[in-house]
Write a structure and sequence with these properties.
The complex is a heterodimer of chains A (about 325) and B (about 325).
Chain A (H helix, E strand, L loop, with lengths): L4 E11 L6 E12 L4 E5 L6 H8 L7 E10 L2 E2 L5 H7 L4 E4 L3 H4 L6 H12 L4 H14 L5 H4 L9 H13 L5 E5 L7 H18 L2 E6 L2 H7 L2 E6 L2 E7 H6 L4 H9 L38 H5 L5 E4 L2 E3 L2 H5 L7
Parallel strand pairs in A: 3-8, 3-9, 6-7, 7-8
Antiparallel strand pairs in A: 1-2, 1-4, 4-5, 9-10, 10-12, 11-12
Helix pairs in contact in A: 4-5, 4-7, 5-7, 7-8
Chain B lengths: L5 E13 L6 E15 L4 E5 L6 H9 L6 E6 L2 E2 L5 H10 E4 L13 H12 L4 H14 L16 H13 L5 E5 L7 H18 L2 E5 L3 H7 L2 E6 L2 E7 H6 L4 H8 L50 E3 L2 E3 L6
Parallel strand pairs in B: 3-8, 3-9, 6-7, 7-8
Antiparallel strand pairs in B: 1-2, 1-4, 4-5, 9-10, 10-12, 11-12
Helix pairs in contact in B: 3-4, 3-5, 4-5, 5-6
The chains are: A alpha/beta (about 325), B alpha/beta (about 325).
């Protein structure tokens, strides 16, 4: 069976007005996603994770150029579709949830109006049936008293409720893929737990594939089957979550895992990563992580490492992985 | 036992809410209600709770930015309300703060040296040479290069700016630093640097911290004692390790069960709370947590539980009466 989504060698650059500066925001990224699967894309600010997600929907800002690659979704390359065809994909086949629900909702329209809109646009539903469906959707995302809530406005809701409404809009046309970009960073802890469980329920009920864009490895540990780690626009490691947590192949992944405080071992000193993420306009030569890497070798400074298969579903992009046997324990 | 650096006794802060016709009072928000805690020298108190629980108001009371409407704060054994002008000046020097966003807390028009020296210049009349010496000392202490003093904040990354904010907080050799979400605005790979720096400074200088954060693992990592707030009330406090391993109050249990796992195999029993935090304008009767509590009993809706000692910690819950 072919995967639901396959990204091959995608490259996205940001180009300034006179073309003077080029930022390689996404560079040589390849990954795939099966139906019903959950993929986490982790990285720090500027690692290219959001640009990657936006390029799947072709919603990139005007300064961005897709310079290479293919995005095969349900057998078609999204990058070659016409704008009209692409509009049918957005919202209907692929939906997206953004970090700030207040920014994704229109303050001047009622909740019912906004949840019903994709149904009216994509499925040409009548006003009455779209609103009936909107009430059902609000119930499925556990909004109490949906009959009254459809007539209210976003400012009358709490943050958690707004994010659930954005979720309801996301699933309204029963998409196959839902992309969630930091969906819970603005939510409180207990509300975050509610929301993540809700997403999981919706995923099971509708057979959705999920992509979580996050900087939080905890969300990856809780929610994802597979994870792709981004650093400076490149995917440095990807594989099954458990394998990557147990035996990370890339020093960056390992360092990230060790730098996070864990409940229960409070006296352990955190392993800090020296330095800071690089400026995309002036990337280091060779491997972009080499100035911060604890295991740096001469080769890393000169040559970018290739993709290495660590185990059948686990890739790492590091010279160490090239030299080591696949079963190397980190 | 030595005298605690900070001792808050039955601290309350009520905000009147004006609204309605001609600004008539529409009620009061009990932002902080009958909260007591102590912070000993060289110790960290972690304050946790969700938005609107009163963490930030508590920190403002400790910083002297708000006056309590009830209760008292004692600094080194002396009640703040009874301090004379000189005593208050000493207090303000001894209690400093580091905030969440180092992009907002540093003046972009000032050089880093001037930013760090500002508390020294306004509070003490030191000769220029001594100020320069102190700046160099503070930069070294916080792991910044000496030439940083001549640069502007925009020339630094988020992590380095947070180091500048910490250097400024240290300028007057304080006893206590209020850390309000000091790492949540920073990149994940930078957070450990700052947390390690804070722990090193604590060990080196005998500082006390009031640490406020959403990330429970970070709070557990940094704190000696943890206090949990819900809607202005303290529901539980105790030794950090014990409290995070075996929380007693149903709210604390739900909060810690909602913390994200650090490994995919880590399966905690999840307590998903129904509903959301009610408005602090109309807090529920009795125990404020009872409408969402999975173990609520009849008396929880009528009788407010008091904070009582239990196995080395303090819990406000009828389950343990």
């Amino acid at each position: 069976m072919s995967p639901l989504l396959e990204i091959r060698n995608l490259g996205v650059h940001y180009i300034t007005a006179r073309g003077a500066r080029v930022n390689r925001a996404v560079d040589e990224v390849s990954l795939s996603l099966d139906a019903g699967e959950t993929l986490g894309i982790v990285g720090e600010s500027g690692s290219g994770k959001t640009t990657l997600a936006l390029s799947l929907l072709r919603l990139l800002p005007t300064a961005a150029r897709i310079v290479s690659g293919e995005v095969i979704f349900e057998g078609r390359d999204l990058l070659t579709l016409s704008d009209k065809e692409m509009r049918k994909v957005r919202g209907q086949r692929i939906a997206m949830i953004l970090q700030d629900p207040l920014a994704s909702l229109n303050p001047l329209f009622t909740i019912g109006n906004q949840v019903a809109e994709p149904l009216r646009v994509h499925e040409h539903a009548s006003r009455k049936s779209a609103w009936a469906r909107a009430r059902e959707l609000l119930r499925s995302v556990k909004i109490p008293a949906p009959e009254a809530r459809v007539k209210e406005y976003p400012h009358q809701m709490s943050g958690g409720m707004r994010q659930r409404i954005v979720g309801a809009i996301g699933i309204s046309c029963e998409p196959r893929l839902l992309i969630a970009d930091e969906p819970t960073t603005s939510l409180d802890l207990t509300i975050q737990a509610q929301y993540l469980n809700l997403l999981r329920e919706l995923q099971r009920a509708h057979g959705l594939a999920l992509i979580f864009i996050t900087h939080n490895l905890g969300i990856v540990a809780k929610m994802c089957d597979r994870v792709a780690v981004m650093y400076a626009g490149r995917m440095v490691e990807a594989g099954p979550v458990k394998e990557i947590f147990d035996a990370p192949a890339h020093p960056y992944t390992r360092a990230l895992l060790e730098s996070i405080p864990r409940m229960g071992d409070s006296r352990r000193r955190l392993t800090a990563i020296d330095g800071q993420p690089p400026d995309l306009a002036a990337l280091p030569t060779g491997c972009a992580f080499h100035p911060r890497c604890p295991d740096v070798m001469e080769r890393c400074r000169e040559e970018a490492p290739p993709d290495v298969t660590v185990s059948p579903a686990h890739f790492g992009r590091c010279w160490l992985a090239v030299h080591a046997e696949p079963s190397r324990k980190a | 036992m030595s005298i605690p650096v900070i001792e808050a006794r039955r601290l309350s802060k009520l905000f009147p809410v004006k609204g309605g016709f001609l600004g008539r009072s529409a009620g009061v928000v009990r932002a902080v209600d009958d909260v007591s805690f102590t912070i000993d020298q060289g110790q960290t108190l972690g304050l946790v709770g969700e938005s609107g629980c009163g963490k930030t108001t508590t920190s403002k009371l400790v910083l002297g930015l708000e006056e309590p409407t009830g209760g008292s704060i004692r600094f080194e054994g002396k009640d703040l309300q009874e301090l004379d002008a000189a005593g208050r000046r000493h207090y303000r020097k001894s209690v400093q703060a580091v905030f969440q966003d180092p992009f907002a807390s540093l003046n972009p028009r000032m050089r880093v040296g001037a930013i760090i020296a500002e508390p020294l210049v306004t509070n003490e009349s030191l000769p220029d040479a001594d100020v320069r010496k102190r700046i160099a000392q503070l930069l070294e202490l916080t792991g910044l290069p000496e030439r940083a003093a001549t640069l502007f904040p925009h020339e630094f990354s988020g992590g380095q700016r947070q180091r500048i904010a910490i250097a400024r907080a240290l300028a007057l050799s304080p006893r206590l630093i209020v850390l309000d979400e000091p790492v949540s605005a920073l990149d994940v790979s930078i957070r450990a640097q700052i947390l390690n720096l804070l722990r090193d400074l604590q060990a080196q200088l005998g500082l006390s911290y009031l640490f406020i954060a959403h990330d429970l693992a970070a709070v557990a990592h940094m704190s000696h004692t943890i206090a949990v707030m819900y809607l202005g009330r303290l529901v539980e406090s105790g030794e950090a390790g014990a409290l995070s391993r075996a929380p007693k109050h149903p709210y604390t249990q739900a909060l810690f069960s909602a913390a994200l796992p650090s490994h995919p195999d880590e399966r905690r029993e999840e307590i998903i709370l129904p509903g959301e935090v009610p408005s602090p304008l109309r807090p529920p009767s009795g125990c404020r947590f009872h409408p969402r509590c999975p173990q609520a009993m009849a008396r929880c809706s009528t009788e407010e539980p008091q904070l009582r000692p239990l196995e080395g910690s303090f819990v406000a819950c009828h389950l343990y009466d």
